[in-house]
Amino acid sequence: EHIHAMSDDQYVDKVRAGELYDEHGPELEGARVRRSLVEVHHLSGRTTEALECADLARGVFERLGERRLLAQLEVNVGNVHTRCDHYPVARDHYLRARELFEAEGDELGHAIAEFDLAVVEMNDNKVDGAEEALRSARERFEAAGATMWVADCDYTLAYLESRRGDYSLAIAGLGRAREAYEQCGKPSGVPLCDLDLAEIWLALDARRDALAHARRAATRFEELGLTYE
Predict the structure, then answer these.
(1) Who's near 32: CB < 8 A, 6+ residues apart?
(2) What's the CA gap between 229 and 219, in Å, rounded?
(3) Do residues 12 and 45 make contact, with C-beta atoms less than 8 angstroms apart?
(4) Per 3-state DSSP, what percentage of the chain is helix, strand, and coil (rounded to 5)?
(5) What is the pLDDT of residues 183-210, one digit of tens each?
(6) What is the pLDDT of residue 3?
């Protein structure tokens, strides 16, 4: 389960909900809240609290045999370790999540765990492993009709080709990803493609093309309020 940024009031409410379930039950609902709090805590800069929540929730899910919820929890914990650059630990959690999703016949969950595993492999400079995981994830996302995730796979596969220095394949892949993002309506997708294309053209010393793509990306990121990008 991926949690986006929330306000301070929402954060406090989420934490309080977990405390109330601890006091009054039911136990499973409390564990569900803690599963969500893993990412909420971490995105709020509270990594220790995130992992403590995970340990509490894991015990409940294991005792009650809630394997799908346990798999979702493992993805969340993997995300925590990925952001902390603890790649071997993150990899173990994503592999465990993938195993659990597969046992449950949850293809979408399996694909998400596979995609996150690919990110870890990529960050750990294991490009071939990242590609294998991405292609597996893409196949499952496509079967599930998850078009935005398919576009993300295409974008990331193109990025891997640029990492290998095969710029022609990377440019073609970014073109496919750009088209897919336009169709599925992910706002940040197209400017991300432009940003990567700018870097490729710069590496090829095609500075005018690089500048054109960089300007388009910067303009769109500014419109979206994505200051980091």
Answers:
(1) 57, 69
(2) 11
(3) no
(4) 85, 0, 15
(5) 999 999 999 999 999 999 999 999 999 9
(6) 42
Number of residues written out for the chain: 229
Got the DSSP string for 114-175? HHHHHHHHHHTT-HHHHHHHHHHHHHHHHHHT-HHHHHHHHHHHHHHHHHHT-HHHHHHHHH
Rounded to two decimals, what is the model's pTM? 0.86
Q: CB of 120 within 8 A of CB of 90?
A: yes
> Which amino acid is present at 56?
L
| pLDDT value at residue 24 | 53
Task: Tell the residue number behind the tokens 């597969």, with chain if given.
Answer: 102
- Residue 109 CA: distances (Å) to CA of 93, 98, 153: 13, 8, 15
Structure tokens that stand for 50 in this block? 């995130």
Q: What's the Cα-to-Cα distance from 133 to each of 64, 80, 111, 115, rounded to whole Å? A: 30, 20, 9, 6
> 168 exposed, middle or buried (CB, 10 Å; 0-12, 13-18, 19+)?
exposed
